[in-house]
């Protein structure tokens, strides 16, 4: 009876999952043990004091992650001025570590194969500043649309393109490279219809296509990539559709491919402590259905293997 009372308030199926994977259940139940993190946009240090006063909290600089600060796990940042004005991001330290491991250098062309909702993509763009480019790909249209909103909020879209596509089959090279011997200028002069500056206003053709795809939120590997956003300096403006969607050969990929590739495929939530804690409100049955279902886990494993190969 006593043993029952001290058992962490997690469902048996999840406890069995943790045990099978050698994970300590207490990391999911000690609510205060995991701090939350924020990242500051470059050159926004002036906002720190104001943020601390508004939130009545003290930020601790994370020495090993530039621009990151930790704060108490209960601090809600969503209504703070700095967050609403796009000066501060909510992003955990492990995401920051993954981006730092990419070792992004000035001028890099980065491919983010599982980009939505876009915390790492934004960090990469901040690191690149006015150089290079980022191509974000995600199979979920609605999630990538949220990523587009995030780019706009943080004013980071200038060197970015977003494609709804299956990362396992995506094979477009960074924009702005002509894959034959002609110079870009010659090619552009020869072609009539080129991409103009991106606008959120859809043409009737695009609206029709969106209506057609309606509820189809996830694309399959056989569908061509769908460009849902491109910035002014992403290399897309001025290209023809043929140029953008041209299949690249090995030789071209070797010389004009991406410098860095980030693959952040969906995980089984075993590492996502905060997310698991939310199921206390959503219901443990939902956790069993959404997270622990064996078929789903097998499918995820297959996806992760496919996308990493
Ligand atoms: C863990 S989230 C990515 C988080 C994101 N990198 C960030 O920093 O905000 C995983 C994403 O992978 C996407 N995804 C899953 N399978 C995919 C595939 N085959 N191709 C592209 N994206 C995929 C999901 O739609 C989901 O948005």
TrEMBL record:
Sorted alphabetically, the Gene Ontology BP terms of this entry are: RNA methylation
List the Gene Ontology MF annotations in alphabetical order: RNA binding; RNA methyltransferase activity
User: Which residues of the sequence carry a binding annotation for S-adenosyl-L-methionine?
Assistant: 138, 166, 264
InterPro entries named among the record's database cross-references:
MeTrfase_RsmB-F_NOP2_cat (IPR049560), MeTrfase_RsmB-F_NOP2_dom (IPR001678), RCMT (IPR023267), RCMT_subfamily_9 (IPR023269), SAM-dependent_MTases_sf (IPR029063)
Q: What Gene3D superfamilies is this protein classified in?
A: Vaccinia Virus protein VP39 (3.40.50.150)
Q: Which family does it belong to?
A: Belongs to the class I-like SAM-binding methyltransferase superfamily. RsmB/NOP family.
Which controlled-vocabulary keywords does the entry list? Methyltransferase, RNA-binding, S-adenosyl-L-methionine, Transferase
What is the protein's name according to its record? SAM-dependent MTase RsmB/NOP-type domain-containing protein
Tell me which species this is from.
Acacia crassicarpa (northern wattle)
List, alphabetically, the Pfam families matched.
Methyltr_RsmB-F
Domain annotation SAM-dependent MTase RsmB/NOP-type: ranges: 23-309
């Amino acid at each position: 009876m006593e043993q029952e009372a001290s058992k962490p308030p997690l469902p048996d199926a999840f406890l069995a999952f943790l045990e099978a994977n050698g994970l300590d259940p207490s990391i999911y139940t000690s609510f205060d043990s995991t701090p939350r993190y924020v990242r500051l946009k470059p050159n926004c240090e002036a906002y720190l004091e104001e943020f601390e006063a508004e939130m009545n909290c003290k930020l601790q600089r994370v020495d090993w992650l530039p621009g990151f600060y930790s704060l108490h796990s209960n601090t809600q940042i969503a209504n703070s001025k700095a967050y609403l004005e796009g000066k501060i991001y909510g992003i955990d330290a492990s995401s920051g570590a993954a981006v730092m491991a990419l070792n992004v250098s000035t001028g890099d062309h980065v491919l983010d194969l599982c980009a939505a909702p876009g915390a790492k993509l934004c960090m990469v763009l901040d690191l690149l500043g006015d150089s290079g480019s980022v191509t974000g790909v995600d199979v979920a249209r609605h999630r990538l649309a949220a990523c587009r909103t995030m780019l706009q909020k943080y004013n980071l879209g200038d060197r970015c393109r977003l494609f709804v596509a299956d990362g396992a089959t995506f094979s477009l090279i960074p924009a702005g490279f002509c894959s034959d011997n002609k110079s870009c200028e010659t090619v552009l002069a020869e072609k009539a219809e080129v991409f103009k500056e991106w606008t959120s206003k859809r043409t009737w053709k695009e609206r029709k296509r969106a209506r057609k795809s309606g509820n189809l939120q996830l694309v399959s590997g056989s569908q061509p990539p769908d460009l849902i956003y491109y910035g002014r300096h992403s290399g897309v403006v001025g290209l023809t559709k043929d140029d953008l969607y041209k299949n690249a050969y090995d030789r071209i990929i070797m010389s004009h491919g991406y410098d860095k590739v980030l693959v952040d495929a969906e995980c089984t939530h075993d590492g996502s402590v905060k997310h698991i804690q939310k199921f206390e409100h959503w219901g443990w049955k939902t956790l069993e259905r959404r997270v622990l279902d064996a078929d789903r886990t097998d499918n995820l494993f297959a996806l992760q293997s496919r996308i990493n190969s």
